[in-house]
Write a structure and sequence with these properties.
By secondary structure, the chain is of the alpha/beta class. It has a domain at 171-179 and 220-275. Helix content is 44%, strand content 17%. The chain contains 23 helices and 25 strands. The strands form seven sheets. Strands 13, 16, 18, 19, 20, 22, 23 and 24 form an eight-stranded mixed sheet that branches. A six-stranded parallel sheet has the order 9-7-6-4-1-12. A three-stranded parallel sheet has the order 3-2-5. The chain is globular. It starts with 7 loop residues before the first helix and ends in a 5-residue tail after the last strand.
Length: 621
């Protein structure tokens, strides 16, 4: 055997490597051919043909959000292969409703709310406003569901008629907010010393780490804003369904007896309470819609167009180049943290960059900052607030539209706008900051570990969590938190034309509904995104129809744009489905809901501090 001839082991390993390499190239080529096929079908199929007498089916899937948290390629591939979508953008729902109201090819709308897993009350108000404008066109709205929780039911209640599966249920239960409390587990069981530094007796975000249950201030504040939102919910349902709100509340409180009276038939109970107009199975509902409209023999149902297909059709109809002045919308959705972060979160660097991009675009005449955030780090919040201030100073109107929540840091980034809009059911306020520092010397001692040593100054090693926290250092941290709170209320007072003393009366970490905040002068007007956009345009001297709406987001690469556009084509999606390819082949994990509590404290401190100051509100419903 030659010296250069590999031995049996090397030949075996080389063979394995060649096999793996071949498999890798094969999979890559198959994926590439699959993508090319979708693009070609999309290019030459001409897209869906929207016929007359169509029904727009509004069926939100997953969580309704301001901005997708998954990357565009993941969504496009999942959509191409017919996978359920975990999120639906509010802007897409609003755009489809608005376009359909004036589209002669759409004769009615069907709402299917039961695949919607979550939506905020402020978003529901946005949808009600859009559907009210749709109803003025004279077109019918019908809702059907297999079963509904109270948020799904609100969406259904916006229809002229509601039909429920005979075995379905409408569950209205009220609002609640319960949290786990860890004091005993952390301090008594594990020996962790928890040091909370805060200003404001109502700043309850970190109470679970130091108490066994909510403080009286927390109970009082939570019930105050929750009762306001719940009362508005009942009033809205009563108005939409021509019921009495007090009677509706009584029936919810008396649920066990109501179920017994209906013989356990939850569908009949909903019918008797006039929450729905009829009980029918899905095939019966399809037959009803065929009778009122046109049958589509190919799908054995009524002629219909799904929201995504309808929007894809509108995109192809749209002029390729719109030279009108722009009103830009920047979305700030999710927790506020330092750095350059992806969509679905608010980054001190990334969100600031989007605001700066809008400010420096000569074709953008006004900016709307859409905020749906419980807050987060003080430092990144201040970075974003400064960009709002600079945009206003540059002479471009900037209007804030608060979504479901703009609390604590979410209010911080909002306060310097020319005008602030909030829905009555928006959760806002929570003006306050806190810091949480945990030390573990007792925990270590339980397993026989002791920490000791020397330092060159009195504070050297003071922020080591394995050592007890010095009272003097604790006082220092509290002084910094106090200063941060003063800075917060002084900035609010300056932005709102008030005084720190007046702001302090409605601050101290207390949460308010949008309607309550408007009474206290924390917001200017009650209204939604539609109102905020109109106000921004008005301030820029742009009349209706004289401007284009432009969402400022991270730009897609040319390849990503081709794929995303292609998967909006029904024929291309059909090809992907018939190929029988599993969605797992290209699936990437979709961003999950960010962990609360400790996640904020685990992330690195900002501004050079050895600890983190947080402006966060744990006040979601």
């Amino acid at each position: 055997m030659s010296k250069n001839t590999p031995g049996p082991l090397m030949r075996f390993l080389r063979g394995i490597w060649n096999s793996i390499n071949f498999a890798r190239r094969l999979v890559f080529n198959l994926v590439f051919l699959f993508i090319v096929a979708i693009v070609l079908v999309a290019m030459f199929s001409g897209g869906i043909k929207l016929q007359d007498r169509n029904v727009l089916v509004l069926a939100p899937q997953g969580q309704v959000v301001e901005q997708f948290s998954a990357d565009p390629m993941s969504r496009a591939m999942a959509r191409a292969m017919g996978q359920p979508q975990p999120e639906t953008q509010l802007r897409d729902l609003l755009r489809a409703i608005e376009a359909a109201s004036t589209d002669a090819r759409i004769e009615r709308m069907v709402i299917r709310p039961d695949q919607m897993t979550g939506i905020g009350f402020a978003m529901l108000q946005e949808l009600e406003d859009a559907i009210t404008r749709f109803r003025k066109s004279g077109k019918q709205i019908v809702a059907y569901a297999d079963g509904m929780d109270q948020r799904q039911y609100y969406l259904a209640a916006l229809a002229d008629e509601i039909y429920l599966h005979p075995d379905g249920m409408v569950l209205l239960e009220g609002l609640s907010r319960y949290r786990a409390y860890y004091r005993e587990a952390l301090q008594d069981k594990l020996g962790v010393d928890v040091h909370l530094f805060r200003v404001g007796e109502f700043k309850s975000a970190a109470e679970p780490f130091i108490l066994d249950g909510p403080s009286e201030e927390s109970r009082e504040a939570d019930l105050y804003w929750m009762n306001d939102i719940w009362r508005r919910y009942l009033d809205d349902i009563a108005r939409l369904r021509k019921l009495d709100a007090a009677t509706l509340q009584a029936s919810i409180d008396d649920l066990p007896n109501q179920v017994k009276a209906a013989g356990g038939d939850l569908g009949q109970m909903a019918l008797q309470q006039k929450l729905v107009d009829g009980l029918m199975s899905q095939d019966q509902f399809r037959a009803l819609m065929v009778e009122r409209g046109v049958e589509d023999a190919e799908i054995h149902s009524f002629r219909q167009v799904a929201m995504d297909d309808y929007l894809g059709f509108l995109n192809r109809e749209r002029l390729p180049l719109d030279t009108r002045p722009k009103v830009a919308v920047v979305v700030a959705q999710g927790e506020i943290a330092a750095g350059d972060l992806p969509a679905g979160t608010v980054g001190g660097i990334s969100t600031s960059r989007l605001l700066r991009e809008a400010r420096e675009d000569s074709n953008v005449h006004a900016v709307v900052l859409r905020v749906d955030s419980p807050g987060g780090g003080v430092f990144p919040s201040e970075q974003i607030r400064r960009e709002v201030e600079l945009t206003r100073a540059a002479g471009k109107p900037i209007v804030v539209s608060m979504g479901n929540m703009a609390a604590s840091g979410g209010y911080w980034i909002s306060m310097n706008a020319d005008m602030i809009y909030a829905e009555p059911n928006t959760i806002t306020g929570s003006i306050g900051i806190f810091g949480l520092f945990m030390t573990f010397p007792d925990t270590l001692s339980k397993i026989g570990v002791r920490v000791d040593g020397v330092g060159t100054t009195k504070i050297a090693g003071a922020f080591d969590p394995s050592r007890p926290l010095s009272p003097a250092v604790g006082e220092t941290i509290q002084a910094i938190i106090d200063q941060g709170y003063r800075q917060f209320i002084e900035k609010v007072a300056h932005a709102r034309g008030s005084t720190p003393e007046e702001i302090d009366r409605v601050a101290r970490g207390r949460v308010w509904s949008g309607a309550q905040a408007e009474q206290f002068g924390l917001v200017d007007e009650l209204g939604g995104l539609h109102d905020a956009i109109a106000e921004a345009a008005r301030r820029a001297n742009l009349g209706s129809g004289e401007y284009a709406l432009h969402y400022v987001e991270k730009q897609l690469s040319p390849f990503e744009k081709i794929i995303v556009d292609a998967t909006n084509n029904a024929a291309a999606r059909g090809l992907a489905s018939h190929l029988g390819l599993s969605g797992r082949m290209l699936e990437q994990p979709v961003a999950q809901e960010l962990r609360r509590g400790l996640r904020l404290l685990e992330s690195p401190p900002e501004g050079g501090k050895p600890f983190k100051t947080v402006a966060h509100c744990f006040c979601e419903l």
